[in-house]
Amino acid sequence: MTPQLIVLDVDTDSSEELFRLVNHRLTRDALVGETFLTAVSRREETYPTGLDFGHACVAIPHIDPDHVRCPGILLCRNASQTIFHAMDDPERELQIA
Questions:
Q1: Cα separations (Å) of 44 from 1, 51, 70, 71?
Q2: Distance CA 9, CA 17 (A)
Q3: Per DSSP, what are the bridge partners of residue 85?
């Protein structure tokens, strides 16, 4: 069985809160370990994942596999714009929706 990894209509205004909500869902379904939230937050601080495509900005936070119990890709759409830092220029803030 493939886990449901689409999270729609989240409404947070910070990446930290977004990570907490995703962590709650993934831990509830036993898809990640207890270290996931701290690890994904630290990795985003060290290696920002925001991408500016001109017409849209997206973020692709990711994590080392030792924090994951079931491999997969989670797609999340946030109702509010959230600041992530650009992958190619960590000082630049991008509004991700």
A1: 30, 13, 20, 19
A2: 14
A3: 93
The string of DSSP letters for 7-33 reads EEEE--SSHHHHHHHHHHHHHHTT-B-
Under 8 Å between Cβ of 74 and 18: no
Q: What is the value of pTM for the model shown?
A: 0.88
Does pLDDT of 2 surpass 70? no
Work out whether the CA dihedral 14, 19, 24, 28 comes out positive or negative. positive
8-53: per-residue pLDDT in tens? 778 998 999 999 999 998 999 999 999 999 999 999 999 999 999 9
